[in-house]
Specification:
Helices cover 45% and strands 23% of the residues. It is built from 5 helices and 5 strands; from the N terminus they run H-H-H-E-H-E-E-E-E-H. Strands 1-2-3-4-5 form a 5-stranded antiparallel sheet, with helices on one face. The chain is globular and about 65 Å long. The protein starts with a helix and ends with a helix.
């Protein structure tokens, strides 16, 4: 019985010490998500006029639900400068009501230097799941969204 109580005390202590870390991580992630949403799209693509990312993307996808995550931008690639300080992305995923999906990753920080570097469009894809098309620049997304939608309507 004594072992069981020691185990429970150790378990509770472990859980309680992890809780603040989780809360801090969530607060940090939320700050980074808010930063990504507020990035001026003209900094990501000079062909776009000055506007925050969130209203700009909503003008394309309407009120479709947005899921944001803060994660490493990608795998380590064997380039010393990259692997030594890998970038962190604000990753947006959205599924429109007609089933089309949007993925946009914005590099907003790095593990060592934090959010000192300018944000960079890491990737953008839009389309029917499994057939998403890449957009090399944010300014390509409006045409891509209209084009994929037009193709879908035309094939019905």
């Amino acid at each position: 019985m004594l072992r069981k109580s020691h185990f429970l005390v150790a378990l509770l202590t472990s859980l309680l010490t992890l809780m603040p870390t989780h809360a801090q991580t969530n607060a940090r992630d939320q700050r980074m998500i808010n930063y990504a949403k507020g990035v001026d799209v003209s900094r990501l693509d000079p062909n776009l006029r000055k506007q925050s990312f969130d209203p700009w993307i909503r003008s394309l996808i309407g009120n479709a639900r947005q899921e944001w995550k803060i994660e490493d931008c990608g795998e380590q690639i064997g380039v010393q400068s990259y692997d030594a300080d890998p970038p962190i992305c604000g990753k947006l995923y959205s599924r429109l009501s007609d089933g089309r999906v949007l993925r946009v990753w914005i590099a907003i920080a790095s593990h060592k230097t934090g959010m000192k570097a300018p944000p960079i469009l890491w990737l953008a894809y839009f389309g029917v799941p499994g057939q998403e098309l890449p957009a090399a620049k944010l300014s390509y997304l409006p045409t891509l969204v209209r084009g994929v939608a037009g193709q879908q309507r035309g094939s019905e």
